Amino acid sequence: MSTDVKREKLSLSQFIMKVVNGSTSGIIVAVIPNAIFGQIFLNLIPTWEGFRVLYELVQIIQLLMPVLVGIGVARQFNLDLIPSLSVGAAAFLGSGNVINNAGMWQLVGIGDTVNAMLVSGIAVWFVFLIENKVKAFVTIAYPTIVGAGAGIIGYLTLPYVSSLTRLIGNIVGTATELQPIVMSVIIAVIFAILILTPISVVAIAIAISLDGIGSGAANLGLVAVVLFMAMGSHKAKNEAGITISIILGGVKAMMPNFFKNLKIMIPVAICSGIMGALAPILNIQGTPASAGFGFAGLVGPLVAYGYLEHSAILNIIILVLVYAVIPFIVCGLTYKFSRDGLKVIKDTDFEATI
Residues 87, 71: contact at Cβ < 8 Å? Predict the structure, then answer.
């Protein structure tokens, strides 16, 4: 009896989305400890030297990102252990985060996340090609063909992919410096809309190294869309658990509502644009790791706190205003105006589909 592996046929778009979703899981595991605690530990070093060790440890976890991306992608396709580890190895090779310096191998950051994602997809494809042909040579074939083979391809594509991602990051960074308010509005709106699609805003922020004011703007844009969609859920009389889950980071659950009525994009753009403009005005900054989180897990506010230069009390007041009070007012007014004035939305547009 044949024991060939039977795989579900996937379209190109389905395959890509699995790669993106798996990559996002790996990215989140890698960046969350540093995103939440990194800046806190750094600021507390003067009070106790032990915080320096803790700061270094959460930094080290982040260095594992390429491997975690590869394993995350492999899990999306339900690969077995050795194939999954081989995909992780290929992603590590393709990330370029290890260099040889005078005969010594050195880690130089998280590497190129986009290329790690690309190589992970290629490695999974290699697994599909050989999994029914190498059953007696699993421990040899997968590490060699998938790990090293796909990794070599990633090594070759790395300079080109890195050049492209650096170019995008430099364009965004330069534009934000030249036109901080305009670019902050644009970034906030883009991230707010993308969070309502299958695209991972966390992966994008990491890929283009979105930091500083640009990261803060993306963060505030996400705060706006989360509160706006939560208000819609409440007005639609969804179960309280659904509304709470949106606030806690489950806003992607509202994707079906968004695609059923794309006019929702109009109020989302209004409220997120207003919030994004506050980033350069109030010096709300962030890192590539924090840009895609909004206030989920308090990642955005905690990182932003480290960039504010006022007294502790004033810093906290500013964060409460920009992450809670102002967005609540802005989203409430925008919702009412969009429903009763522009008439582009109705309360029923936000009825839960899950």
Answer: yes
Angstrom distance (rounded) from CA 284 to CA 137: 54
Residues 215 and 317 placed together within one structural domain of the fold: yes
- Cβ-proximal residues to 200 (8 Å cutoff; 6+ apart), any chain: 20, 21, 23, 24, 27, 292
Q: CA-to-CA distance for 79 and 208, rounded, in angstroms? A: 29
Could you tell me the mean pLDDT of each successive run of 10 residues in the chain, 354 residues long?
67 88 84 76 88 91 91 94 96 90 84 90 95 85 95 94 82 80 92 84 81 93 95 92 84 86 94 96 90 81 88 94 96 96 93 74
In this structure, is residue 5 part of a structural domain? no
Cα dihedral sign, 306-309-315-319: negative
Q: Strand, helix or coil at 100?
A: strand
Write the burial class of residue 309 (CB in 10 Å: 0-12 exposed, 13-18 middle, 19+ buried). exposed
Helix, strand, coil % over all residues of the chain, rounded to 5: 75, 5, 20
Contacts of 305 (CB under 8 A, 6+ apart): 39, 315, 316, 319
Co-location of 121 and 24 in the same domain: yes
Same domain, 146 and 183: no
Please give the full DSSP string across 190-239, using - where no structure is assigned: HHHHHTTSSS-HHHHHHHTT--HHHHHHHHHHHHHHHHHHHHHHHHTT--
CA 202 to chain centre: 1
